Fold these 2 entries.
Entry 1:
Amino acid sequence: MEPMSSLQRVDDAAGLLAPHLSRYIYELSDDKKGQVREIRLRCGKPLAVNLTDKDLFFQQDGSLSSICTLKSVVVTKEDVSECFKKLCGYSVYSHQNEIASGFLTVKNGHRAGICGTAVIENGKVVGLRDISSLNIRVAREIFGAADEIMNRIMTNKTSSVLICGAPASGKTTVLRDLARQLSLRNTRVAVVDERGELAATYCGQAGNNLGPRCDVLDGYPKGKGMMIAIKCLAPDVIICDEIGTEEEANAIHTGLNCGVCVIASAHAYDSTELYHKKQIMRLIALGAFEYIVFLKNVGTPGRVQEVIKAGEIIAQGSRSHLYRNNLFGGRDIYVPQAY
């Protein structure tokens, strides 16, 4: 399968919209189209796109404006409904679990955030009704996105790394390129792709190029997928996105004991925010990660803000077992003692 260019990926995502809306994206100049990160539909509001780091609204003449005007292209309830059905492949029932989690991942790895009215049963969200807005994040495959990380900490051996950054900082794009580059250098890679964003698997075939030595566990919960990979696939490294639960932490700890490296991502702007994440801090204290990489919040995916050895993260916060700081409003923040 030939890789899609960044422009083709934007057009592919735009195809999820009703034709009278998608044409505005198709007709963008290549320069602007190449900057599209997200497409947003809100009932009764203008059709919007995010270009790198700013939201703009389509006008009826095809131009983009930073403000809403009387000539803005307004999205109707029917437009949102039609897009939602396309995202579900016209089979809403078969995607109920994803919908209840607030997102859908579609062919080629695009991910749509869903807003609506929650359907609650026994205190849990079991579905959504009256869909009011959709945010389609365009999947991007950028060869070389992980070059800086590979050159700085993967030159001589594969290391366990935690990739941290703000939403839309490029964590998933970097993980995808790390899988490809490590696979190309004779490393067995297992990708646990719970949300279908890393490999973009469709009918058993990965839509993204993850290299020749990569096995993909598509749709598996990360904790279960990591355990299966460790037991059955003999990987050198396991790659997964957005860790944070206790089950995932336990699976990573098991992999550590089996000599398997883990490369994962987490939402954290900096080390201060990382201290809030109890399960991740426990893993760092246990030696699950050798390096913590913080990405810059805007710009080209893979731009590194800071690389910190895991021991230094612990040392910075282990002056006391419970770290108190007015910055956190006096709440207790879990920080393991240095090992």
Entry 2:
Amino acid sequence: MTPDELIVALQAENDGLAAVIRAMESSRSWRLTRPLRNLAAAWRRGTPRRAYRQAQRRSVLRRGSMVVGIPPVPEGDPCPSVCAIVHAYYLEILPEIVWALQRCGSLTNALVTFPAGGEREGYRRAVAPLVAAGVQVDLIAVENRGRDMLPLALVAQRALDTGAEVFIKVHTKRSPHLGEQGVIWRAELLNGLLPDLDSVEHTVRFVAAERSFGFGVPIASLGGKAHRGKNRAALSLLSRRAGLRVPRRLYFPAGGMYWCSRGWLETVAALGLTAEDFEAELGQLDSTMAHALERLIGCYAATNKATIWVMGTPEGMPQPVAVDGLRVALPR
């Protein structure tokens, strides 16, 4: 690439990022997190007690939540190894995920699932940058059922067998029913999970330090009780099968993208789910086994009192979350 071509490419990338920022600032989540930015400003002015009281009044902090500090992380040790679990239904979006994953310096493995009958060569070209960086990439064709949840169930044990200590689950989320907002949400999720090398390394160390019960979720993904809805029956079935309780306040990473430690994948693998457990794809927006499995992570977290690192908060401010049985770690 000549210098002129490089300048043109960088300018195009800059324009694209500027468009994402404009879209983010006009998004619903940006408006909803305005109280947090006010809290951050008050905190910087040196009035934490007053800011805390203001946050309580604005329902940013609620009764029943338990906020804890960041546990000691052994910064001097080698960064724990990471395995990425990627479901790439949309081939054209996969390069976006590959580019983001390159912000994880300790990524050793990537399991990339794609619909059976898909263009394997196209997927091979898309993941080439990871292969060039020394990542072991496995392309796995799966039946087109259960969105990104059936692929997770099918490769959970294989991911554990890589020996990785920490896992990141992402997928080529498009959400056609959301229109342009779906594109914005995907950008918020990816940028929240993989903002930069240093932030990603600290997240990986945090999740690994929590062993079986550590999670990292982007602020744009926290779903709650209002999202349980018609999935109650399937969720109850799965939770009984896994020996988990359904909490009164169910919090889970809506959008299906998060960091996790080995315990959650062991739970998913032990369920023994197969394609027959998932409905045929008919464009459903709710009430499927995939939606129930997506929410089961909230049952796992509550039952095991998991510690959740909430990422991608505005202006670097930690996001306190009201949860049932969870401990919330504050990013710094």
